[in-house]
Specification:
Blueprint: H1 8-35, E1 42-47, E2 55-58, H2 60-63, E3 68-73, H3 74-79, H4 88-94, E4 101-108, E5 111-118
Length: 123
């Protein structure tokens, strides 16, 4: 399977069910990453299995979900060369406001891609 932006809609639908359960936690974690000066670019790797990218934040068993949610930020992605140095500025330019959007890094079998998903609006 190729990494294709067209697949984002497919994964957005699959992940949304789990995302709504953890959106408040992820939004607060993103805020803390920024507030404590770790990074302006929080990233949440999500995977059906365990991954070494980031640190586990919410295991799927805790929320009866299909996806594990990890926590990381841009520095780890550049150190692991998941974002190449020559693409760093481009990534920063497409990165959406972390107070409104969650940056997920979806890892599923042969597919990996960034998806920006809006946080649910407070009712």
């Amino acid at each position: 399977m190729e990494n294709s932006p067209e697949l984002s809609g497919k994964y957005l639908g699959i992940i949304s069910t789990d995302f709504v359960k953890v959106a408040d936690i992820l939004k607060e974690a993103a805020y803390q990453i920024k507030a404590q000066g770790f990074s302006e670019y929080p990233i949440f790797p999500v995977c059906r299995t365990l991954t070494e990218i980031g640190s586990i934040l919410i295991p799927k068993e805790r929320i009866e979900a299909k996806w594990n949610f990890n926590i990381s930020y841009i520095d780890e992605f550049t150190q692991r060369q998941l974002i190449a140095e020559e693409n760093l500025e481009q990534f920063k330019n497409i990165y959406k406001d972390p107070e409104e959007f969650c940056c997920l890094f979806v890892i599923d079998m042969d597919f990996t891609n960034f998806i920006f998903i809006p946080y649910p609006e407070d009712l």
